[in-house]
Amino acid sequence: MSTDVMSVKPAAKQEQMLEMMAEKHIRHLLVCDEDRRLLGVVSNRDCRQNPESKARDLMASCPTTVSPNTTITVAVTLMMNKNISCLPVLENEELKGVLTTTDLLLSLQCSLQILMRVASNAELMEKVLGTLDAPPSSTSPSSTSPDAFDELEMVVQAETETGGCQQDSSENDPELMVTA
Fold first, then answer.
1. d(CA 114, CA 124)
2. Are residues 51 and 136 in the same domain?
3. 153 lies in which domain range?
4. Residues 59, 73: Cα–Cα separation, whole Å
5. What is the pLDDT of residues 79-120, one digit of tens each?
6. What gap in Å lies between CA 9 and CA 52, rounded to an integer?
7. pLDDT tens, 22-68?
8. Would you say 94 and 7 are in contact if contact means Cβ atoms under 8 Å apart?
9. Which of 102, 133, 164 is where one domain is finished?
10. According to DSSP H, which parts of the chain are helical?
11. How many domains does the chain have?
12. Among 6, 13, 1, which residue's Cα sits nearest to residue 52?
């Protein structure tokens, strides 16, 4: 989710909106009133197809929104089912941010990088897989070894805290890197 939200007033002109989107490298603008209440969403595609229009004429009013607590799974499902690529994030009617397909792709990239690093740690993978394959123990209520999962959680946390999810790095696999 991006919290640095670009918004325009309903009277914003098409040329101004296209300029803002190009300058910020974004594809959507949120249309808000003076109190920053969400009125609609305008995409770069809407602007290009309707020259000489204003935000109020181009916006998709009553857009689908999510809360900050919405899971990625729900957000992806909404985007796919409604054929949209932008979800404004509202909390108690207050605009908190915007979630786009780009945000979701960055999240996927990060997850793949973490999985690849964990998979390359043979000792940890053996512990986790061994724990998952182990038969239930009659002496304990659970067959899972908390040590293996605690270690896995620590690796994931360390990767995310130390820049494990990088957008551009020559040290990592270029097929997994995003270049801006």
1. 13
2. no
3. 121-176
4. 26
5. 999 999 999 999 998 999 999 999 999 888 888 888 887 778
6. 16
7. 999 999 999 999 998 999 999 999 999 888 899 999 999 999 999 99
8. no
9. 102
10. 14-24, 44-49, 55-58, 72-82, 101-119, 122-133, 146-161
11. 2
12. 13
Q: How many CB atoms lie within 10 A of CB 179?
A: 6
Position 3, amino acid: T
| Residue 72 to residues 62, 102, 107, 179, 180, Cα–Cα distance (Å) | 21, 13, 9, 23, 23
Position 113 in a domain: no
**95 and 127 both lie in a single domain:** no
How would DSSP label each residue in 7-56?
EE-TT-BHHHHHHHHHHHT-SEEEEE-TT--EEEEEEHHHHHHSTT-BHH
* Domain shared by 128 and 94, yes or no: no
Strand partners, 2: 98
Token reading at 83: 């054929």
